[in-house]
Specification:
Citrate Synthase, domain 1, three-stranded antiparallel sheet, two-stranded antiparallel ribbon, 5 strands, globular, binds carboxymethyl coenzyme *A
Length: about 450
């Protein structure tokens, strides 16, 4: 199989001509030839296009980076038209079916699937780093009883940088490796502590005899039993959810991690930026919105009326549609079957019938067909989390645990990329200029 990077671009066809773009500046009549590589031109090439010597040069304006590649990356390939998602070239459905989250985390971070010895060592390293400093419990205890667990996670992950001041030395590969292990290992512990704090329950330490997901379930749900024994079906469902959420190329939180990390700050502070971005309802919060919507619809009889409202533009069908996937979200299919597995243990979430019927009706409806609106990853994930007894406020926290391996893989790639510099976009200044200060009494 070719390992050449491929481009996710419609109409990206070889024409037999030169791989360049000729641009004529109609202000001056000058023509410039700009090289095209991987279906992309370098924005800085435009800087040579000037009307005079003291002109700054042409810039591109791209709010929300809708058409700007901010990096070259070999981690995740995504083709929205054909609904393809691959980590390091491996299709997401194969990984979700056959691998474990820790194996996928290794793949994302190191670029290759581990052999048995590598996997054993990786698992061992992650497992022995799952504990957090005892002081973490104290500052967790400082949060209000009703603090949002994602806010607690955000604070806690940033605070870890103060426990590992050596993490600042991001130029040392062995240092980066140990911080990578710590981050993947400790994220579930911080997440579970946040959950237990919200419930007013004592913190439960990791159980290093259990799997990554099993230990997390133990920290979440262990009560008085001496040994918590996770149900292997729930453990697996959770692992699949973590795998599906592990990376999604240059999304909002990953871009935040890269952008903050580009200042060469320690990785804990960069990850805190990722958690902050994921906290927002347009990113990690959509599954919560799906659940609230399903609760509101309540029964299948109410679906036609709800769908009419969506078509009339009164609201959106949450969990449908995606900026990139315009065919289907490959993660949604996998999650749907993970949901069935989880419900065998937790009992069927009564809202599943509403979700299934809603999906069926929407997929047959012209409005959704025409606009290429399909279920996305969030349509079913909330149902699983709810069936596991999680409050909606924990949903983005679950997303953050899985996404940690992706954030760290992207951060590692960024700090080793000689082309990367501190992130510093340009602006088009639209404000006033050169005004003289007016004393307060004259305003
Ligand atoms: N329900 C009803 N109509 C929709 C929906 C929806 N969920 N999504 C898009 N549309 C319509 C939209 O009204 C527009 O119609 P028209 O052309 O008549 O104006 C058309 O489809 C195109 O929509 P858009 O807003 O230009 O599409 P976008 O690519 O900017 O938005 C989206 C993508 C995910 C924000 C949007 O589909 C949406 O709001 N979905 C619901 C929220 C959701 O499920 N978000 C989770 C995304 S997956 C999480 C992740 O991968 O991180």
């Amino acid at each position: 199989m070719s390992t050449e990077p491929r481009q996710e671009r419609d109409g990206d066809v070889a024409t037999g001509g030169r791989d360049s773009l000729s641009v004529t500046d109609n202000r001056t009549g000058e023509t410039y030839e700009i090289e095209i590589t991987d279906g992309t031109i370098r924005a800085l090439e435009l800087r040579q296009i000037k009307v005079s010597d003291d002109d700054f040069g042409l810039m591109t304006y791209d709010p929300a980076y809708m058409n700007t590649a901010s990096c070259r990356s070999a981690i995740t390939y995504l083709d929205g038209t054909d609904g393809i998602l691959e980590y390091r070239g491996y299709p997401i459905d194969q990984l979700a079916e056959k691998s474990t989250y820790l194996e996928v985390a290794y793949l994302l971070v190191h670029g290759e699937l581990p052999d048995q010895a590598q996997l054993d060592e990786w698992t061992y390293q992650i497992t022995i780093h799952t504990f957090v400093h005892e002081n973490v419990k104290e500052f967790m205890g400082g949060f209000r009883h009703d603090a949002h667990p994602m806010g607690m996670l955000l604070g806690a992950i940033g605070a870890l940088s103060t426990f590992y001041p050596d993490a600042n030395d991001i130029s040392d590969p062995s240092n980066r490796e140990i911080q990578t292990i710590r981050l993947i290992a400790k994220m579930p512990t911080l997440a579970a502590f946040a959950f237990r704090h919200s419930n007013g329950q004592p913190y439960v330490y990791p159980d290093n005899e259990l799997s990554y997901s099993g230990s997390f379930l133990n920290m979440m749900y262990k009560m008085t039993e001496l040994k918590y024994e996770p149900d292997p079906r729930l453990e697996r469902a959770l692992d699949v959810l973590f795998i599906l959420h592990a990376d999604h190329e240059q999304n909002c939180s990953t871009s935040a991690v890269r952008s903050v990390g580009s200042s060469q700050v320690d990785p804990y502070s960069a990850m805190a930026a990722g958690v902050g971005a994921l906290y927002g309802p347009l990113h990690g919060g959509a599954n919560e919105a799906v659940l609230r919507m399903l609760r509101r619809i309540k029964t299948t009889e109410n679906i036609p009326g709800f769908v009419e409202g969506v078509k009339a533009g009164e609201e959106r069908l949450m969990g449908f549609g995606h900026r990139v996937y315009k065919n289907y979200d490959p993660r949604a299919r996998i999650i749907k079957s993970a949901a069935e597995d989880a419900f065998e243990v937790t009992g069927r979430n009564p809202l599943l019938d509403v979700a299934l019927e809603l999906e069926k009706i929407a997929l047959e409806d012209e409005y959704f067909i025409q606009r290429k609106l399909y279920p996305n990853v969030d349509f079913y994930s909330g149902l699983i989390y709810e069936a596991m007894g999680l409050p909606v406020s924990m949903f983005p926290v679950m997303f953050a645990i899985g996404r940690t391996s992706g954030w760290i893989a992207q951060w590692l790639e960024m700090v080793q990329d000689s082309e990367q510099k501190i992130s510093r976009p340009r602006q088009i200044y639209t404000g006033a200029r050169q005004r003289d200060y007016v004393p307060l009494e004259q305003r």
